[in-house]
Every structure is written in C-alpha cells, then in structure tokens.
Design goal:
Blueprint lengths: L12 H20 L3 H14 L4 H13 L3 H14 L4 H13 L3 H14 L4 H13 L3 H14 L4 H13 L3 H14 L4 H13 L3 H14 L4 H13 L3 H14 L4 H13 L3 H16 L2
Helix pairs in contact: 1-2, 1-3, 2-3, 3-4, 3-5, 4-5, 5-6, 5-7, 6-7, 7-8, 8-9, 9-10, 9-11, 10-11, 11-12, 11-13, 12-13, 13-14, 13-15, 14-15, 15-16
Keywords: Repeat, TPR repeat
Protein name: Tetratricopeptide repeat protein
InterPro entries: TPR-like_helical_dom_sf, TPR_rpt, Ycf3
Length: 291
Amino acid sequence: MSEGIKDGAALPEAAAQSRASVLRSRAESYIALSRHDAAIADLTESIALVPDNARAWRLRGESHRVIERYEAALEDFDQALRLEPDSAYALGSRGQTYTAMGRLEDAMADFEHALTLSPDSLWILEAKADALVDLDRLDEALETHGKIIALNEELPYSWAARGDLYQRLHLYAEAIDDYTKALEVNPEYVRALSRRGEALRMIDRYEDALADLNRALELDPDNDRAYGSRGAVLSELGDNEAALSDLNKAVELDPEYIWAYRVRGEILQELDRHEEAVADFTRALHLEFGD
C-alpha cells in the first residue's frame, strides 16, 4: 500500500504527473487482486497529486462500490463525470451503485445515458437488465437479455441469466432451453446445471433433474442450492432419508436458506416428525418475516 509522500506540493509538475500515473496503474492491479483498500490509498494519493484525472476518480469510485461504501462511491463517480461527462464507464458504475442503494430510477437513467454512448456494452446491458428485474419490468428485462445474447452467443452466463428470468416467470421450457445453450458453450457450468435441474424438477422430470444436480455437485460439492434442489427431487422420488441428508447439508452450508427449511419441514411432517417440522417452519418464518 502506498504510504504517500511527505510533501506532494514540492514535486515538480512532471514528477507529480509521473508518480500519479504509476499509482493509478498499481491501483488497477490492486483492484484486479480485490485489494481495494490498497487501491483506494494509491488513488487517493494520485488524486491529491493530479486532481483533474477522471480515471483516478472512476477507479476509486469502483473500489468504494465493490466494498459497499456507496456514498463515497457516488461522490467519486460524480466527480469523474464532472471531469468527463460522457464516460459510459462512470455512468454504468454509478448506475450499479444506485442499484445497490435501491435508487432504481436513478440507476436506469444512468444506464440509459451510458448505452447511448456505448450501446454494445455487455456489462452495462447486464446491469440494466438486473435493475429492470428489481423494478419488476420483466418483459423489458427479457428484451435486454435478448440484446445481450445477440451481441455474443458464446457467453454461458448470458444464457443462464435469461434462463433464470424465464424460470422466475414459470416459463420452464424456455428456461431449460437457455440453460442447455449455456451448457453447450460450457458443459461444466455449475450454475446452468443446477438451475436446469431445478427447472426440470418443476415440470416433474425428476430423473433428468437428478442427473443434472448430481453433476453439479460433482463439480461443486459445496453448492447449497444444488443440495436443496436435489433434496426436493429425492423426496419426489420417494427417498426421504436421502432427501433429508441433502437438505441437512444445504442448511449447514447456508443457515439462512429459507426454502430448504420449508422443504425439510414438509418432509419431516410427512414422516410424522412434527416437533422437528415445527422447528423448521419456525426457522423459515423467522428468517423471512422476523417472527
């Protein structure tokens, strides 16, 4: 981490510019390493040396955003945009900050402005789609996901993201098609395997679902959602003991996994283990509603 210099004002302008440039470059590597406090220290010194460099403000804002210092991030992005009003990067990042703060209309305004400047920016389109989902503007979110996929069909994440939205809309056949596309690009994409398994469960294709969830857990043995879904599938297939084992693992990995408590409670209820069922339902109610 940079310790700074004792008297930045004493540096000749050329030296100050040079030092600030190296600090910005080192900060970018710190950011890539997720060492955000170190990046912020370097960028703060860089800004003190050269206050009119928009990139430094932009980068510091991004580090602040990632570590959830949202007010500080907004101040940095605002300053970056004063210096460089047509920065799609700063607009997109400020939009992500607004989204995290729940200021969704402000976020949408920034995303729309950014996309007039950089209409094919995949990450800004993805951020816009997420905000549209949060606003419950699901048809527009689907349209945006379609644009993302049209720009690059070789990104498994994009197919899976649209699949998740289809699943939210209970359009399971469409979701399965998108997860399958993701897996054609990357056959070991755990998210797509796990989510396709869940979609298959929802249309009662339990054996197919089990195959996907088994594979997901082979690849990622600590995937709590895959354990939860597989537990539900095993219960439908009549193996309640194996189902309980998976659901136990799911809540061990994520003690706040509400759906797993509900499903486990239902299985325990079927087995006449009512005290344990009550405990699970009570836990689910507490986590979701604060009871």
